[in-house]
Design a protein that fits this description.
This protein has 732 residues and is α/β, with parallel strands linked by helices. 31% of the residues lie in helices and 15% in strands. The protein folds into four domains: 241 residues, no CATH class; 69 residues, no CATH class; 149 residues, no CATH class; 221 residues, no CATH class. The protein contains 21 helices and 25 strands. It is globular.
């Protein structure tokens, strides 16, 4: 049933939607029937069976709205609003603050960086700057997708702006980036879709802020509020699959730990990201027809919006982009018309024959799975960063703010790596240079050198721990490679959760520790304090070295399990380790992509300086895989590589980042514009190319459109990306 649903009154004739000027769904794969739960015009509207209770609420665009949570452009740029009672935040407050957090998490909201001039609630998709606060009225629908067990509970949400046009219906997906919750893509494809008058289909893809406090047995609900696991039952966003007896034993041995959904669901949620995205599209069609459909004589709702006459664009950034690609590859029903994404976590399978040449240099290592290159980075980044200090002002500024211990212990990590034969050199300087050279040889470009330090400080260990657990379907009870999640004190000792912080984590958390007070803890730390088990990873000493080397032993363990052998001595893993390695390998295979987009037009945009998702392993490799997998008549993918752009636009306000990099978000807007025009008017998509940007220089200098030139319809030969036989050629 739909809760709080109010049907609008419409007068609708049986006139064909084609006659009304609705664009024909041209990209339907031949021979494929429509999805069983998305019917034809005039048929009954059938609720997908994986959907249960639906909540619905209308936002007036004044006191509250779909895009800004009632805050408007000005409020999004200001500090987060306070909860009236931090120990009892309301669902409305949690939603508002979640929008505030997630919008700012993917965008630079400083005016000098382009907020309010190049992008933002007040800027139209066409780039016109208005005096508006950008609030958008409309309906918001929320539900879980599940298999009936209550163990998956993937959050789906559809926003329908009042500007939605029955004569030109469109749906845009907004699959969350990273491990973020349901509002994770609100500032990315969500904003574009709402401004365009499209329904926006969101999903948290089975990750999100699913924190289970194992000490208090507290879990979250779909609206962000929290209760105990027993009371929540099947309504829990995530409850770890552990018995009461096992939980008690675990708590006694390792107190104050928490389980997180992405890491500890034991379901490898990434393999389902494509299906989750398709589920969000089906949900969008269902609620659209419940809202706009005509009542039949039997009391059922009749479909007036169907896939054949609706433009559907799959979009997202980072992991959200990966979900869009996966969905397009799995779309047997022809629900998706086109794809427009940025910096996707794309992991193709068929790259053995592929070569990538930049300029005249063949790239040495390409197309590695995410966990492979992350476990590699986790070893070498803190040592390599020493080769760039103090010149690396971008990395230094953020690392000094978030994790100064990374800077302090970088030389120790170098020494420990050298002692194990994993880097060469007799001095820290030589060892750092060798570590940096290893990153280059493994696929990172020199364009991303200045980002290695900052990325290790706030991202690399977190992603490595989460994905080794997730891909291996590992229980929180296993403490894989000695790692767990807990709040820590200033000394790095695990402590109890802070109630007010935990109660607001739906708003502030990013789904992957460290977040909202929850940090990575290395249980096996040689320097565990009396009365405590473990130490925060960045303050931990390794048992094998006795040195403060950022828990190197744990990082080596993760690398061992990923490659399937002991990286120090080259020997075989023991039986237990080998079993984990097999499970991780199986998990990696489950999430890799074929490169077959079923002839759908697609635009992939990626920043050349991306240090998190390096282009050689992701977009370049996926583009090459697509060219190899699909014949000439089906290749409709364009790849745009943007110079001076990296993964985290939100950090463009920091010194070092500000003067070196441009916002990639501008190019997501342009990609969506181009794809929409292509699908509705037949306009040509831009060909594959390098877009050469100009950093704004000093931090205070405002960025303008001259810094971020648009795609070229006819790029110069020196900018054109080409694929010939089995080789992808990228201009320097």
């Amino acid at each position: 049933m739909i809760v709080a649903f109010t049907r609008r009154t419409f007068t609708l004739t049986s006139l064909s939607l084609v006659a009304l000027g609705v664009p024909v769904h041209a990209q339907q794969p031949p021979g494929n029937a429509y999805d069983h739960y998305v019917g034809h015009f005039g048929s009954k509207n059938v609720k997908p069976p994986y959907i249960s209770e639906i909540s619905a609420k209308y936002y007036d665009g004044d006191s509250d709205d779909l895009l800004t949570g009632g805050l408007g452009k000005t409020g999004l740029a200001a500090a987060a609003p306070l909860f009236a009672d931090p120990l009892a935040p309301t669902p409305e407050e949690l939603r508002r603050n979640a929008i505030h957090t997630n919008y700012r998490a993917v965008l630079d909201i400083l005016p000098a960086g382009g907020y309010g001039t190049l992008y933002g609630p007040n800027v139209t998709n066409a780039g016109a700057v208005t005096a508006s606060e950008g609030k958008i009225p409309g309906w918001e629908y929320l539900t879980y997708a599940d298999d009936g067990t209550g163990r998956k509970n993937v959050t789906l949400m559809v926003q329908i702006p009042d500007s939605f046009d029955l004569k030109q219906p469109c749906i845009v997906t907004a699959t969350s980036s990273g491990s973020r919750g349901i509002y994770g893509a609100i500032g990315a494809s969500g904003e574009w879709g709402l401004k365009q008058g499209c329904a926006v289909a969101y999903t948290d893809k089975g990750t999100g802020n699913g924190l289970h406090d194992l000490m208090t047995d507290s879990v979250g609900l779909i609206d962000g509020t929290r209760t105990d696991a027993v009371t929540a039952g099947e309504r829990s966003h995530f409850t770890a699959d552990v018995t009461e007896a096992a939980r008690a034993t675990f708590n006694a041995a390792t107190p104050n730990r928490v389980a997180y959904k992405h890491a500890h669901s034991q379901q490898n949620p990434e393999k389902n990201w494509g299906n989750n995205t398709l589920q969000s599209i089906r949900f969008a069609f269902y609620v659209l027809n419940e809202q706009f459909g005509k009542k039949g004589s039997d009391g059922s709702t009749r479909i007036v919006i169907d896939p054949k006459h609706t433009v559907v664009i799959a979009s997202g950034l980072s992991n959200g982009g990966a979900g869009a690609l996966q969905a397009a590859e799995q779309d047997l029903s022809g629900l998706i018309d086109g794809i427009a994404i940025t910096e996707p976590n794309a992991q193709p399978t068929n790259v053995k024959k592929l070569k990538i040449v930049q300029g005249t240099t063949e790239q040495p290592v390409i197309g590695k799975p995410l966990l492979d290159y992350f476990t590699f980075a986790s070893l070498y980044q803190p040592c390599a960063a020493l080769a760039l200090i103090p010149a690396d002002t971008a990395g230094y500024a953020i690392a000094n703010l978030l994790a100064p211990s990374v800077i302090a212990q970088g030389a120790t990590r170098c020494a420990s790596l050298a002692a194990k034969g994993l880097v060469g050199g007799a001095t820290p300087t030589e060892q750092a240079a060798d570590a940096l050279a290893k990153l280059h040889a493994y696929g990172w470009l020199t364009d991303s050198d200045t980002l290695q330090l900052s990325h290790y400080a706030f991202a690399t260990p977190a992603i490595t721990v989460t994905y080794t657990n997730a891909l291996g379907r590992v229980s929180v009870l296993d403490n894989l490679c000695g790692f767990s999640f807990a709040n820590t004190n200033a000394a790095g000792d695990p402590i109890a959760q802070v109630s007010a912080t935990q109660l607001g984590i739906f708003s502030t958390g990013n789904g992957i520790p460290p977040t909202s007070g929850v940090n990575l803890v290395y249980n096996d730390a040689a320097n565990s304090a009396p009365g405590f088990v473990g130490k925060r990873d960045l303050l931990a000493s390794s048992p094998s070295t006795g040195a403060f080397d950022l828990a190197l032993d744990g990082a080596i363990c993760q690398r061992d399990l990923t490659v399937g052998s002991d990286i120090v001595d080259g020997g075989a893993l023991d039986a237990s380790e080998a079993a984990y390695a097999r499970r991780i390998g199986e998990g990696i295979a489950e999430v890799q992509l074929t490169g077959r987009l079923r002839g759908k037009p697609a635009l992939i945009v990626h920043g050349r300086a991306d240090a998190l998702i390096p282009v050689n392993h992701a977009s370049r490799a996926y583009y090459g895989a697509n060219q190899l997998a699909e014949g000439n008549g089906h290749r409709k993918l364009s790849y745009i590589e943007v110079t001076n752009a990296q993964h985290f636009d939100a950090f463009l306000g920091f010194p070092g980042y500000a003067e070196r990099f441009v916002p990639l978000h501008v190019y997501l807007i342009r990609a969506l514009n181009a794809m929409y025009d292509h699908l509705t008017t037949g306009a040509a998509l831009p060909p594959s190319q390098v877009v050469r940007t100009v950093p704004r220089g000093p931090e205070a200098s405002p960025i303008t459109v001259t810094n971020v030139p648009n795609f070229s319809a006819d790029p110069a030969s020196s900018d054109r990306i080409e694929f010939k036989r089995d080789t992808l050629y990228i201009p320097d």
